[in-house]
Every structure is written in structure tokens, then in C-alpha cells.
Recover the amino acids of this structure.
């Protein structure tokens, strides 16, 4: 697609989904119905708003590339992205509710990363060029590489009511 596109109901019974648009993408309902390594979902556009992008929690991966735009959620509180691995790249910010095992997220311009996770999450590589990072998980958070430059990093894990919070407002990496 050369312009903006709305993905109202895009499903595959057994296969991958790849969408590339020259404008904004609204992903209202995109699902790979068989959770398998080969059934990944990839969406590229100039800004992506997610409603439901579901590749499965065991093996399916989701890649979101917002180009010069942001990756945003629809505000309903439900998981916007369900996947084993989320790879998200944007220029002006990432704000998602997720059910994922691991995240590789990057904001290359001025923008924040905000992820609200429904379970455990591994932060493989999460970084911003000029914005804060806030990760909240209903389970454990495993940290690989997290870097917000001179901005604040806040990680909050709430595993079975035992809440742990890490706040780093210095210029060092976690």
C-alpha cells in the first residue's frame, strides 16, 4: 500500500503476515491463528496504532517499524501486541500494552518508550535517543540492555504482589 491503511480484520490460519504502507497503519485486528516460528507478523508504516496484533505467545514474533512516526496503543487496556518476541522501532515514541516474552525496542528521535506487560518480560535491547523508558510488568523483569541516555529509566515488576521498582535518572545504563 502506498498510502495509509487500516487493518480491520487480517487473519491467517497458518502463515506469516507482512504489511508495508507508505503512510500510517492502524492495526485494529491482525492475527496469525497458528502459534509457530514461521508465522510471524511484520508491519511497516509511517506511524502504527495497534489495537490487536497477535502472533501467539510461544513461537510467533511481531515486528513493528513505524519509520518517522510513533507506535501507539488504542487505549483499551487490553494487550495490543501478543508475541514471543516484539521488535519495535520508531522515531517519536513507543507506547504499548503487551503479552510478550521479550522486547527489542528502539526510539531513534525524541520520544519515550512505555510498555505495560501482563506477565514476565525480558528486555533484550531497549533504548531511546532522547526520552524516558518506563516498563511495568505483572511478573518479573529480566534486564539485558536498557539505555535512555540522559533520561530516566523506571522498571516496575509486580510478581504475586511483591513489587520491586528500579529508577535510574542518571546517564548510565542499566
Amino acid at each position: 500500500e502506498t498510502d495509509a491503511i487500516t487493518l480491520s480484520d487480517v487473519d491467517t490460519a497458518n502463515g506469516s503476515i507482512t504489511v508495508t504502507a507508505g503512510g500510517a497503519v492502524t492495526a485494529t485486528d491482525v492475527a496469525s491463528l497458528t502459534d509457530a516460528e514461521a508465522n510471524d507478523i511484520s508491519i511497516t508504516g509511517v506511524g502504527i496504532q495497534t489495537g490487536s496484533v497477535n502472533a501467539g505467545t510461544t513461537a510467533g514474533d511481531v515486528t513493528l517499524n513505524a519509520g518517522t512516526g510513533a507506535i501507539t496503543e488504542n487505549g483499551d487496556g487490553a494487550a495490543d501486541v501478543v508475541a514471543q518476541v516484539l521488535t519495535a522501532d520508531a522515531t517519536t515514541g513507543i507506547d504499548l500494552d503487551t503479552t510478550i516474552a521479550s522486547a527489542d525496542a528502539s526510539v531513534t528521535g525524541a520520544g519515550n518508550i512505555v510498555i505495560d506487560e501482563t506477565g514476565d518480560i525480558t528486555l533484550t535491547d531497549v533504548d531511546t535517543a532522547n526520552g524516558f523508558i518506563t516498563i511495568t510488568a505483572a511478573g518479573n523483569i529480566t534486564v539485558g540492555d536498557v539505555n535512555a541516555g540522559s533520561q530516566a529509566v523506571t522498571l516496575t515488576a509486580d510478581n504475586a504482589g511483591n513489587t520491586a521498582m528500579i529508577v535510574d535518572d542518571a546517564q548510565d545504563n542499566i
